[in-house]
Structure prediction request, 216 residues.
Amino acid sequence: MAGIANKPLSADDWSAACKHLARKDRVLRRLIPEYAGQLLRRDADGFALLVRSVVWQQLSESAAQQLWKRYLALPGACTAHGLLSTSDEALKAICLPQRKISYLKDLAQWFAASPKDALSWVGDDDDAVAGTLLGLRGIGRWNAEMFLIFHLGRPNVLPLDDAALQAGISTHYFSGDPVSRSDVREVAQAWQPWSSVGAWLIWRSQNAMPMALNTD
Prediction:
């Protein structure tokens, strides 16, 4: 499974994952037919995805959407060189905190110094990719997990701290009661080795994709 785990999910993988999840999880068995023909769509631009995750983190969905819309209006801000050319004053003017500005500029410098696409990570397993990203200021576990799922398409990523995933698991498995990371991990044991697909189905059922990604 190690070699497969380092490759992006294909349509055949998605079908195999859904068959596995339907056998192993009664909630997902019910959800899978509702989204027949749909699957996780990867974001081809890893830099823009990480920028978006930094802009969005620690904000409510509505506040994050408004801030991201203003960010997108800045010329070139979703490319590494374009962001480096964008003044701090312009970023502050859209109400981006100085702390996030410094994180984004560090991220842009890293990508500008060593341009990367999805193929750059093929030889690295999930932990190695996450470890590299966690070495960057402002990139936490959740940001790395979004990168693994939505850029690299890795099949077995479980973002334990994702609020939307926790809310969905609370709704579907715990009658709306609050859930812990341990609860999420326990529910998702049955999803192995397709945790990313299980998480996607829960997000989709809540209409709550992280950062509003891949909802069509």
The two ends are 29 Å apart (CA to CA). The chain has a mean pLDDT of 91. DSSP finds 13 helices and no strands in the chain.
